[in-house]
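Agenda item 2: adenosine-5'-diphosphate complex prediction
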Amino acid sequence: MTFLKLENLKVYYPVRGGFFKRVVDNVKAVDDITLELKEGETYGLVGESGCGKSTTGRTLLGLNKATSGKIIFNDVDLLSLNRREYSQYRKDIQMIFQDPYSSLNPRKRVIDIIAEPIRNFEKLSSKEVKRKVQEVLEKVGLSPESIYKYPHEFSGGQRQRIGIARALTLNPRLIVADEPVSALDVSVQAQVLNFMKDIQKEFNLTYLFISHDLGIIRHMCDRIGIMYKGRIVEQGTTEDIYENPQHIYTKRLLSAIPDINPDNRDKHMAFRKQVDAEFNNSFNQYFDTEGKIVDLRPLSETHSVALP
Amino acid sequence: MLKFIIRRFLVMIPQLALLSILIFLLAKAMPGDALTGSMQANPNLDPKVFEELREKLGLNDPWYEQYGRWIGNLFQGELGMSYIHKVDIADLLGDRMANTFWLGLVTLIFTYLIAVPLGVVAGRWNESWADKLIVGYNYVSFAIPLFVFALIMLFIFGFGLHWFPIGGSVDVTVEKGTFAYFLSRIHHLLLPAITAALLSTVGTIQYLRNEIIDTKLKDFVKTARAKGTPEKKVYSRHIFRNSLLPVAAFLGYDIVFIIGGSVFIEQIFSYPGLGQLFISSINQRDFSVVNILVMLFGFLSILGTLISDIILSIVDPRIRID
Amino acid sequence: MSKQPLLKINNLSTSFRIGDDYYAAVDDVSLTVNENEVVAIVGESGCGKSALALSIMQLHPQERTKMAGEVLFNGKNLLSLSVSEMNKVRGKDMGMIFQDPLTALNPLMRVGQQIEESMKNHLQLSDAEMKKRSLELLNKVGIPNPERTYMQYPHELSGGMRQRVVIAIAIACEPKFLIADEPTTALDVTIQAQILDLMRDLQSQMKTGIILITHDLGVVAEMADKVAVMYAGEIVEFADVSTLYNNPLHPYTRSLFNSIPSAAHGQDRLHVIQGIVPSLKNLPRTGCRFSERIPWIDSATHEEHPALHEVEKDHFVRCSCYQHFHFPKDAEDLKYDIS
Ligand SMILES: Nc1ncnc2c1ncn2[C@@H]1O[C@H](COP(=O)(O)OP(=O)(O)O)[C@@H](O)[C@H]1O
Ligand SMILES: Nc1ncnc2c1ncn2[C@@H]1O[C@H](COP(=O)(O)OP(=O)(O)O)[C@@H](O)[C@H]1O
Ligand code: SF4
Ligand SMILES: [Mg+2]
Ligand SMILES: [Mg+2]
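Presented output:
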């Protein structure tokens, strides 16, 4: 059974212009990607800002419209469903957003924030709603008494956990986490990452983990897709990617991560210079004649690269 | 830019068309018509005469025919007749339009002359006593109803101190075209303009003050200071320029606001402009005039917002329109 | 040869007025930066890093800020200068690079004007000379088409390009000292690498002394000669970079290292520093400020008034009880803070 598969997914944003504001061009935010997630794993989507990570995640949740392709979830193509059929699956997929400060409505109490998805998808009495909210709050390690507080009464890490609690209320099976810790300090970040690992085990969750931080990705993910200009240029297990990168863009991305050991400084610098030179020299051969990044080619069972 | 303006004008057409239909129907729906006034004035006349007149004027045709006729005439520059004054509406509007234009312009100038310095002072030295005074003035001018304030002004400076005339747009005794005529016109303008200006500064002051207070904390202001830029220049080159920007964009909306205010101001100061004409026409059910005036006001409002957009695109490099 | 340090901060305290009282955000900080040396300041947000940087430049709002101590720059105490004297130092002898290139540039001024503003303040140059120099600067910071960028507005540039412009502004008058406040935090890794390379190149050319503020221990490892770890307004550990990374001693420093994923290779769980950085008002002003966040350490072992001890040559740690510090074995109990 396929848990989740994106098949030849394309998401274009129209660019309007001219006198009548007609569509004159498209931003190919996601340009034909295919990837598969197995149940219970964490798949990391990495790349520079603007490469299409968030668009991919949002499309998965139906927040963006796919231009073409398939999103197969539980053997069903979500894009072929009508609204009613879709909402049935929609609650199995939830999202955690980047900024715990702006993604929670400051004028709503915690109970209203967390209950929102329940109210949208399930018909429960207000007593049941309250009990359910308290339950998930406990799951995320916040005291059940805090349901009547407002977001500003919490620290950044706690807010992010409220965001996670909201995502958990409907017992989802897949969580799209779009840069869930990028706005947080290292110590708070550690807290949230630990927590995400805990609940993953506890509830058998599958994560699509979006980040531009390669340290975090390495820590969190089982498999990784490197995204560049709307395409996936390399995909493999964490080991494949970090120990045996093949695509020049992957190498460049990895060489850009600062080495945490100051004694390696010069070596690392030299390595980075070398990769940069290679990047500039061989850059063109990774594109086809139309300037599109070539398709992925399997190297091994787990590892595939966009090599010509 | 030209493309943008043309497009905006094209968009304006359906807006105005809709407005015109609405106005026309609304006027029709009002009790009575153009002849009701004269009927009441001459109760002895035979109603049949009016009926014939109605027929002749086409007042019994279905509304869309009347509407079509009206619009058709408008396009030929024929604004129609005022049923009350028995003159061409164009003639009726001519002088008054000029009067209102000058009043509006002078009001606008006074508004900015008062609001910009006050806003700047309040924003730059916020929390100071000067700021508190200005904010106080703002509250008062916001809270006080226009007609109450206008009456007080009229009473003090017109009736009491005799500094300004209490009505009209020009002294009847001076000869047209002379310098004295010009002075007299300005003299008549000043009191209504200042009165209106004192009450239209609220938005600009408040906005400018907040903008400056916000801008003061912006990073690029820190950058400017880190370059060793003297405080004065930090304000003039960085803070004020960035804060005035949204205010400049308000110009168009201010025009709309002042046009709205002119209706009352002109009435109270018996200033013969469009606003006064508007009120009296409504009172006399002179719908042909009312229709034209509403159309005109509507047109000017849309124009005002267009002006705002254009100004913003000129002063702010981030906004490009094409 | 003993050379005079470029910047020597002695017992600097900076307090802000909140309500009617003043609270110190920088508390009795002493720090030395030599020519051609990069001193990094690390710590979580809210520790007072920016407050320290802005104190050196004296960019805090005067009416709500009190400063005490000395900031000796080339032997001259900056705190005793008048505003206009200070203006002669800012931009000329010291430049500043800010965190967010998106907001650090005036959106209504062309790039060229913004670079030249600094020259106008300090150098007597003709317009043509200024333009020539601006173009050279843009070239130097790696802008591909200086002529074009000179005429552009900030919004027309990408984040990385903007940060290059911010750097060009900071070095326009060839200052001997630079403060970079989280210069790469807002940028992608690849761009970050480029900007760091650029800063390093410029530094080795111009022999600048740099204070580099960051919360990224990786960036520190790549750039710094010396490191000051800051917590709650105080420097809690200071050493050269290699010493500090190989032998971090202060509990806070060690906690920081243990909480970052890239240092925790293979480890499943990251260390979580309990609680949060206290706000200025709630900051404990007596005893050790970090003790609240390591509740499992026996309070008897804490020093009463922790001072910076030189535990080995040029390695300073604020507290002597680091010897007793250990990470909690029973991590599960401390999994989440329910504060
Ligand atoms: N609503 C939108 N309209 C038009 N273009 C968009 C929109 N959202 C994103 N884009 C563009 O699509 C591309 C991918 O964006 P995004 O998915 O947000 O990237 P990432 O999350 O990797 O930073 C970018 O070039 C971005 O400018
Ligand atoms: N101008 C100010 N007025 C009052 N409090 C301030 C001001 N600037 C900073 N603070 C406070 O001082 C502390 C240190 O802030 P900051 O130096 O910005 O931290 P960092 O740069 O290390 O993240 C924080 O608690 C912050 O809220
Ligand atoms: S003095 Fe005690 S509380 Fe403070 S840092 Fe050292 S061990 Fe921790
Ligand atoms: Mg994104
Ligand atoms: Mg800071």
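Discussion summary: Chain B has a mean pLDDT of 81.
Owner for follow-up: CH.
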